[in-house]
Write a structure and sequence with these properties.
Distance between the termini: 10 Å
CATH topology of the largest domain: FAD/NAD(P)-binding domain
CATH architecture of the largest domain: 3-Layer(bba) Sandwich
Strand content: 15-25%
Mean pLDDT: 95
Radius of gyration: 25 Å
Number of domains: 2
Strand order of the largest sheet: 17-16-13-14-15-12-18
Number of helices: 13
CATH superfamily of the largest domain: FAD/NAD(P)-binding domain
Number of strands: 20
CATH class of the largest domain: Alpha Beta
Structural class: alpha+beta
């Protein structure tokens, strides 16, 4: 009799498990169950609609450093399917990919639809059933079968179950999995932007500083890279990475904390050591007319204003006290963060199923036979740059590989 694999969640990990399992075991009957009316919604909005498929970091020892949670687990899963495998998988199916200078990998088309179409084509090719607008509210295992209760009252039965429903923001949303005996690590947001309410800096919305250093006061958390000024505060890769590494700590602070920004991305001592040479080279020029650091003009004007400096003063006329104030603002500008902003479509959580309860070689539960997990439902999250998708692809492939052994 044909065995039934039900996949809960029509996202990246669910689809990848389905299509690979179907290829590896044609005798398996597979259904993807999704509570929304559309599938692959995170894929669609990722990377501003371009879909940051993965990252060029391929060496496992370096790759796992991009995950604030799940490092040891991922050392095992990435041995089976890594970033290079992801790139090859999509290119073999006609999706040409490109690697950008920062290592992020995108479709050459710059459209997430290329990835979506590829996955949908595979689903169609292997005749995988898609069941939309079907929310699972409870799961029971009776003898060797899973009974899935749905919101519309029609139960679904399965011999194997792969849960790839994504991360949930509230711990109560994991209750149906706790009833199966699993432990849930408390979910907290990861990958969010910093709110700096009613600060004049927000008037510089759209300004990007390519290589700033951002440090959270009173902690060891620090990141360097691009920072984007928004109308509510700060975003950009450096901020998002900080939010991922600091997810638990910043939650404990209730998202109220101070940051120090080094707008130059250069050590303060180095700035001071080179200051006189730099100043002498443009001694005859006004501060407003010559920004020697390559900062965006609007930001430079803002910094001069913050330091209460006359923009028409010449560099040679800058008093030592004001000079010191300028260096401090450029290298240790303190800002008060009060709150965060997350984007619902790209929401990432730390927390989820405790990793000790899952076999990294198969993604199978150690507590419930034939129950599998993948993607963000696990206590795994990566920094921005394609790493969360890579975890999704890898989990899906590792689980699918298990089904290749079934008769």
């Amino acid at each position: 009799m044909q065995k039934q694999l039900i996949i809960i969640g029509g996202g990246a990990s669910g689809f990848f498990c389905a299509v690979n399992a179907a290829k590896l075991n044609p005798n398996l009957k597979i259904m993807i169950v999704e509570k929304q009316s559309k599938v692959l919604q995170k894929v669609k909005v990722s990377g501003g609609g371009r879909c940051n498929v993965t990252n060029a970091v391929s060496q496992t020892s370096l790759l796992v450093q991009k995950y604030p949670r799940g490092k040891n687990f991922l050392k095992k899963t990435f041995k089976q399917f890594t970033t290079t495998d992801t790139i090859n998988w999509f290119e073999e199916r006609g999706v040409k990919l490109k690697t950008e200078i920062d290592g992020r990998v995108f479709p050459v088309s710059d459209s997430s639809q290329s990835i979506i179409d590829c996955l949908l084509n595979e689903v169609s090719k292997y005749k995988i059933e898609l069941k939309l607008q079907t929310e699972i509210i409870s799961v029971e295992k009776i003898n060797a079968q899973f009974i899935l209760e749905t919101k519309n009252g029609q139960p679904i039965t399965a011999d194997y179950l792969y849960v790839a429903s994504g991360g949930f923001p509230k711990i109560e949303q994991y209750d149906w999995l706790k009833k199966l005996g699993h432990t849930i690590e408390t979910p907290v947001p990861s990958l969010f932007t910093f709110n700096i309410p009613k600060h004049p800096l927000n008037d510089l919305m759209g300004v990007v500083v390519e290589n700033a250093i951002v440090k959270i006061v009173g902690s060891k958390l620090q990141e360097q890279g691009p920072v984007l000024v928004t109308h509510w505060g700060l975003s950009g890769p450096a901020i998002l990475r900080l939010s991922a590494w600091g997810a638990i700590e910043l939650k404990q602070k209730n998202y109220n904390f101070s940051i120090l920004i080094n707008w130059l991305g250069i050590n303060e001592n180095e700035v001071r050591n080179n200051w006189n040479d730099m100043r002498n080279k443009q001694s005859h020029l006004q501060l407003k007319n010559k920004n020697p650091f390559g900062l965006p003009t609007r930001l430079w004007d803002f910094i001069l204003q913050t330091c209460q400096l006359n923009p028409e003063i010449k560099w040679s006329e800058l008093p030592s006290k004001e000079q010191n104030k300028l260096i401090n603002t450029l290298t240790t500008h303190e800002l008060i963060v009060n709150g965060k902003t997350t984007f619902r479509e790209e929401f990432v959580t730390s927390g989820g199923i405790k990793l000790d309860e899952v076999d990294a070689d198969t993604m199978q539960s150690k507590l419930v036979p034939h129950l599998f997990f993948g993607g963000e439902i696990l206590n795994i999250d990566g920094v921005t740059g394609g790493f969360n998708f890579q975890n999704a692809w890898t989990c899906g492939f590792v689980a699918a590989n298990y089904f290749s052994t079934l008769q």
